[in-house]
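Record type: monomer structure entry
Structure origin: computed from sequence
Chain ID: A
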Amino acid sequence: MKQMTLTSPAFGENEKIPAVYTCDGEDINPPLVFGNVPEDSHSLTLIVDDPDSPGKTWVHWLVFNIDPHSTGIGEDSIPKSAVETVTDFGNKGYGGPCPSSGTHRYNFKLYALDTTLDVTEDVTREEVEEAMEGHIIDTAELTGIYSRE
C-alpha cells in the first residue's frame, strides 16, 4: 500500500507559506491535495498547528469527518459535510500563520480513519485526538514556514 500524501500547489515541504494565507494577507486556507488515501478509510481529519508558538502548540485549523473520497481542499473552502471546530484563536475555521516573532513551522497533518468521528463541533483538539485513537489507518504531513516581515 502506498503512503498517503498531503501536498499544496501553494508551497512545498519546508517552504515559505505565501502571505495571502496568513494574517498579513487574506488569512484564507491554502489549497491542499490528498493522495493515496487508503480505500478502506471512512473519514479524514486535518489538524494544522504551530509547534513553535510560545507556551503551547497552537491549533490553527481543525477539520474532521472529511469525505475520504475527496482529493483535497480548495483555497478558501472546506469540503462538503466536513466539520470545522474552534481553534486556539477562539473561532471556527482557518486561522493563518501570524507569529509574534521569528520563523515558525506550520504542520498540516492529515489522518485517514477507519471510522467517522462521533463528536460535536465544539470539540477540542485533545478530544478529537482521543476519538481518533485506535482508528488511524494512515497519516501524511506537510510543513510550511512563515515569518512576518
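Annotation 1: The first helix runs from residue 125 to 132.
Annotation 2: Strands lie at 5-7, 15-16, 32-35, 43-50, 58-66, 72-73, 83-84, 104-113, 136-146.
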